[in-house]
Amino acid sequence: MRTPLPRTLINLAVASACALLAVPGHAQQAPAGTTAPADDAQAATPAQELTQPAVQAAPADAQGTASTGAQGTAAAEPPSGAATTVVRISGSRIAARGFTQPTPTTSLTSADLEKAAKPNLFNTLAELPALQGSTGRTTSTNSTSSGIQGLSSLSLRGLGTIRTLTLLDGQRVVGANVTGVTDVSQFPQLLVKRVDVVTGGASASYGSDAIGGAVNFITDKKFTGFKLNVEGGQTKYHDDEHGTIQAAWGKGFLDDRLHVTLSGEFMKENGIDSPGFGEVGPNGRTWFKNSAYQIRPLAQTTDGLPQYTVIHHAQQYQYAKYGLITSGPLQGIGFGDGGAPYRFQYGSNGVPTGTGAVTNCVNPFCVGGDLSGSVGAGTNLAMNLKRQVGYTRVSYDLNDDNEVYFTANWGQVQSHFSPNPGAAKNANLTIQCDNPFLPASIVAACAANNITSFQYGTANAIFPANINVHPTRTQRRFVVGADGKIKLMGREWSYDTYATRGENTTNINVHDITLNARYNAAIDAVRAADGRIVCRNPVAAASGCVPLNIIGNNPVDPAAWAYIAPPNGPRQYTKQSQDVASFNMNGDAFEGWAGPISAAFGAEYRREKYTVRGDAYGAGVDANSPNTAEYPADPLLNSTVGNNWYAGNYHNGQGSYSVREAYLELNIPLVKSGTWGEANLNLADRPMKYSTAGYINTWKAGATWKTPIDGLRLRGVTSKDVRAPNLSELYAAPVVINNVVQYQGNTITVQQRTVGNTNLRPEVARNNSFGIVLTQPSWAPGFSASIDYFDIKVTDVISALTAQQEVDLCVAGNQEICSALVLNNPGNNYVTLQNFNLASLHTKGFDIETSYRKNLDAFGVPGRFTFRALATRNLHFITDSGVVGTIPSEGAGANLGGTPKWKLLASQSWENDKLALTLTERWFSDGVYSNEYIECRTNCPVSTITHPTIYDNQMKGATYLDFGASYNVNKNLMLYFKIDNLTDRDPEPAPQANASFAINPTLYDVVGRTYRAGLRYNF
Fold it and tell me: Which family is annotated (predicted)?
């Protein structure tokens, strides 16, 4: 039975008060170059302006909050007669004078964002050390079916985008993907005046998904005037040309009681197209090396040599650019122009054995040789992306303290890219020796060797176009709300209430992709009695099959291409909706012994819904299928199951859930004295009731202590945070295929059914942090620093399993898994693939932030100097899959992933009234390919599945330098330019088990040196 809310808070208060001396805390310092609230809000003189700016300098927004750029802090009580400005920082719902919240929060103001000079705010934020594993237009470019291509979504702590809550003005935004993640590209970015990055658990304040933290985009709600930003640029390699135009206008009417704001944005990035086949980087990039793992069979590792070797110039010997015979007596014969046979040049001095193997090579790679058919470099490095956003806010002041408002946001993001050239067939084709496209010499060789067919592989480089994927996401979001102040129990309280309706539609269209069954039928040709070349399969021939010649480099018959790759390719249409109603209040409840006890409380209702429809060839035909006229029935295609495309087999699904929640947060001043300093206790509790996952509650208990030591504060917080299962996990579109599993020593054929799991439980996290903050001490004016330790444990992590893993877990005694399969009913055996609450995550480390700002006049140098640095040290990032036969894996420092041991962002700026110069360093540390590998060269232990041996396990980090400048032509016009990756640092090779994308765009800059220039106009 759950503890009632008041008792929960009492228990938290007692526990936290007892632990106060051990876990004190304070909020983070303001970033250099921004206006920060002073500890004592006294009017600053011009001489003090750079070291102790006045709170009054920050304009209040419509909710009485100030755009100070403060990191988790707020102003103390101002002197009598001074204007009162309250700062609300996103790590807490409390907005009160003197409140210093314990949850670490990093803030970037509009000035910080402008200095970065990037066409998309996402790219600026993704460089912050705490944001690891974010997805943008350089990630997932090798994917056809994932559905996340083109999303600009943020991830904190490497815990994934689904565990980071992204907000707009403290409000949830409808997901741009069925997983519920938002797309920052759909936000009105020109109006953003501050971004708060809450690097601690925030579920007690904002609800589900904030396990890693929250990112809150705060807009200028009362913007007045007109501003314009125009920007353009390209890379050193004369590609990825891009341009941005943004404009905003705001004006007050009716004695400034009615305020209207409008903004519009258009951005186009042309992307970096693939060069096609071969070991050639696009447009002169020379760093691509076809890197891969060469993996020896486990049984051979008793010889003291490593199992894994990282190789460059990997040659996939199971196919060639225009075709290769891959086994039998003719193995090693390739085909060139016009189908002419030639002896294929294997790397590693390899010689074909006739069995499919090649001497001196380790399946499936040789090193070097003929690399013309390589496909890895054919993936786009960056997507072509177009962003369009329209936004308006209309507010009306009922009186000086209360307003009603309406906002509307329309955002559309279109992208397209090529995941790979051709459509490689890895020695899995059978060519009959009577195929009329074969040269006479090969037909004769077949007869001489007494064979009627041979195995064949090809990169299909003859295809007239590469696969190209076109996702389009369109958001429509409307908010109606009111905020202001009211009197309650003799005290003044602030409130805000709103209702939102958000819709997002996603259309994914894939072009120039083949249908597997039609391709197989078209390449199996035979000469008819009348001499014509026709498809061998009579059913295929009767349904329109046109023969395709894949023996060498020959022009593709347009009719054959239209048959195997019809113009109506894979399609997916997804519609999501989000309805939210929310009410929030905060204020001083009553006076305590050390100051006013402040409270924030509220309630929220949210409903999420989605439907997804795939095309008839991918999804199969059922009652929910759309009009199938564009996908006519074909006897060769599976009309029920679907899965007919080479890739991009989208299926149908739908589902919804709702949640009701309430919260209470308290700030209790505990100490306020000249001897002991000031301390406060922060408590929060949020019960939530999901229509699917049931009841769960989150809570937070933290404390801050402003010590008697000049400028020194301590802070600490512990919280329980959750992530409820999303629509995709609950209601995954069903897919049914045949598979085999091993059970009780036998191979069993099963029907593999992939479905959602409505019995999933929420993921639960325990989030702990402790920090030390030094804020502008008298002995170091202008200097601030902080260090925060974090420890996050997530249990009941939702993860998917393979059919064999489910069988093994059932045999091991997991009854929940056993309920998803039947293995003792021959002819009707099945395994249902679902997500289960099996895995766990555990990450720990610390964040460091420091800043210094100095007026250089004292040194006889004009202008101001600003230094700021942020760094994250990942001590551990441990993943336990919960699968039988596996062990927890350590991800910290594995540079094939997204969590290096160290990640740093530092900047140095000089500016005066006219000119500003900024140098930025981005760095992450050297690492390894995997922490589970054992590095050795000789006398290696025998490899195991969990701990393979490897020849070289080192993967270098990288340092990137950026330089920018701006010049104020006059008070309204600014010109600026920026060079990113000044030294054109190449990405490190990222070996895979196949010769594919072989780079890691999550960590490394894969675009290269980029030039940008623009102007900003403010009036």
Answer: Belongs to the TonB-dependent receptor family.
* E strands in 418-461: 425-432, 453-458
Instruction: Quote the CA–CA distance of 261 and 395 in Å, as a whole number.
Output: 9
Alpha carbons 723 and 157: distance in angstroms, whole number: 15
3-state SS of 370-419?
CCCCCCHHHCCCECEEEEEEEEEEEEEECCCCEEEEEEEEEEEEEEEECC
Structure token digits, residue 595: 């100051």
State whether the Cα torsion 150-153-157-158 is positive or negative.
negative
Residues 6+ apart with CB under 8 A from 296: 305, 307, 308, 362
User: Which pair of structure tokens corresponds to residue 235?
Assistant: 């890379």
Please state, in angstroms and rounded to a whole number, the distance separating the CA atoms of residues 226 and 218: 19
CB atoms within 10 A of CB 317: 29
DSSP assignment of 40-80: S-PPPPGGGTTTS--GGGSPB-TTS-B----BS----PPPT
Instruction: Please state the φ and ψ torsions of residue 23, each to the nearest 5 degrees.
Output: -130, 70
DSSP β-ladder status, 341-343 and 225-235: unpaired
d(CA 876, CA 895): 13
Output the six-digit token pair for 576.
Answer: 């999501």
Q: Please measure the distance between the N-terminal and C-terminal CA atoms of the chain and give it in whole angstroms.
A: 60
Phi-psi sector, 133: left (phi>0), alpha (psi -120 to 50), beta: left
Tokens of 160: 């994934």
The secondary structure element, H or E, covering residue 919 is strand 915-924
Which of 79, 66, 62 has the alpha carbon at shortest distance from 36? 66
Contact 465/512 with Cβ under 8 angstroms?
A: yes
Omega cis (within 30) before 364: yes
Cα–Cα distance between 54 and 855 in angstroms, integer? 17
* pLDDT mean by block of 10 residues, the chain; 1019 residues: 39 38 33 32 27 29 32 36 50 75 91 93 96 93 84 95 96 94 96 94 92 96 97 97 97 96 97 90 91 92 95 94 97 97 97 95 94 91 96 97 97 94 90 97 97 96 95 97 91 95 96 96 96 96 96 96 96 96 94 92 97 93 68 91 90 94 96 93 96 95 95 96 95 83 83 89 96 94 96 95 88 88 85 91 97 90 95 97 88 96 97 96 97 96 93 97 97 97 96 80 96 96
Query: Which residue shows structure tokens 């891009």?
Result: 242
Task: With CA atoms as reference, report the closest residue to 410 among 188, 602, 231.
Answer: 188
Are 245 and 265 contacting, i.e. CB atoms less than 8 angstroms apart? yes
Tokens of 683: 């408590």
Determine contact, residues 29/773, Cβ cutoff 8 Å. Answer: yes
Residue 629, judged by CB atoms within 10 A of its CB (0-12, 13-18, 19+), counts as exposed
Residue type, 447: A
| Stated pTM of the model | 0.89
The edge-to-edge listing of strands for the beta sheet with 333-335 is 341-343, 333-335, 324-325, 453-458, 425-432
Kindly list the distances between the CA atom of residue 139 and the CA atoms of 383, 500, 905, in Å, as whole numbers in the listed order: 9, 31, 21
Task: Please provide residue 815's backbone torsions phi and psi, each rounded to the nearest 5 degrees.
Answer: -70, -30
Asked whether 115 and 964 are in contact (CB, 8 A), the reply is yes
Please say whether the beta carbons of 308 and 291 come within 8 A.
no
Going by C-alpha positions, the residue among 510, 339, 289, 553 that lies closest to residue 420 is 510
What residues are paired with 678 via a beta bridge?
672, 706
What's the rounded Cα separation, in Å, for the pair 838 and 252?
55
d(CA 326, CA 810): 40
Find out whether 592 and 668 touch, Cβ atoms under 8 Å.
yes
Amino acid at 579: D
Strand partners, 453: 432
Per-residue burial over 446-480, b = 16 or more CB atoms within 10 Å of its CB, e = otherwise: beeeeeeebbbbbbbbbbeebbbbbbbbbbbbebe
